[in-house]
Amino acid sequence: MRTRRQFMLQGLGALAVAAVGARRAGAAVVKRPLGCVDLGALDGCADLVRRAEWDDQPAKTWLLREAGGYNRLTVHHLGQWARVETDRNAVECAVRNVCAGHRARGYGDIGYHFVIDHAGRVWEGRSLAYEGAHVSGANEGNLGVMLMGNFDEQRPVPAQIKVLDALTARLREIFMIKRYRVYGHRDLNATACPGRNLYEHVVELRT
């Protein structure tokens, strides 16, 4: 008999196929599937930098909550100061610093599931097998996508917007997330995140 954990590790591809089959059969579709770890379903969507390529420190999994699935997505900016790095080594250093800061705050790992840099690369963050730590009091079922930059002070570059659109569309398709369930951080907490110059695009994503 297969264990619950084995079912969780079936992957995004199998999940998407099952959902399509259920729709065609007229059956009820499970909208909050169990967490999964296979990012192969994102191939062609973005230039994905896998976690093992930038971080060799294992997550403190005993501090993380296992994901029960995803039914919403929240967009963030890094804030702090304007960022314009496109060099891979410089971005890797910045992402490492974000991760180290989150670990120092007791998160156990970087809080976001994905990070988008100014070159349009997507950096794999926290495993999709675990809930994020990016919206206080509202992390359950919530995918976290963060764009590098302070978008109160600067505008996201076209490469970031293009990849944000593609990544959001793919994640919504995979997890059957309704368009109106795409948020900016400010929609859920008292914060300026993701900055006024990015939030205007988040509004477009959900309308």
Identify the CATH class: Alpha Beta
Number of strands: 6
- Cα-based radius of gyration, to the nearest Å: 16 Å
Count of alpha and pi helical runs: 7
What name does the CATH topology carry? Lysozyme-like
Low-confidence stretches: 1-35
CATH architecture: 3-Layer(aba) Sandwich
Q: What is the typical, i.e. mean, pLDDT?
A: 84
Strand order of the largest sheet: 1-4-3-5-2-6
Summarize it.
The chain is an alpha/beta fold and 207 residues long. Helix content is 35%, strand content 12%. It starts with a helix and ends with a helix.
Structural overview:
With 207 residues, the chain is α/β, with parallel strands linked by helices. The protein has a single domain, classed as Peptidoglycan recognition protein-like (Lysozyme-like, 3-Layer(aba) Sandwich). 35% of the residues lie in helices and 12% in strands. It contains seven helices and six strands. A six-stranded mixed beta sheet has the order 1-4-3-5-2-6. The longest helix is centred in the last third of the chain and has 18 residues, at 158-175. The chain is globular, with a radius of gyration of 16 Å. The termini are far apart. The relative contact order is 0.18. The model is unreliable at 1-35 (pLDDT under 50).
Topology of this protein?
Layout (H helix, E strand, L loop, with lengths): L3 H5 L3 H14 L21 E3 L1 H4 L17 E6 L10 H17 L9 E3 L4 E4 L17 E6 L10 H18 L6 E3 H4 L7 H10 L2
Parallel strand pairs: 1-4, 2-5, 2-6, 3-5
Antiparallel strand pairs: 3-4
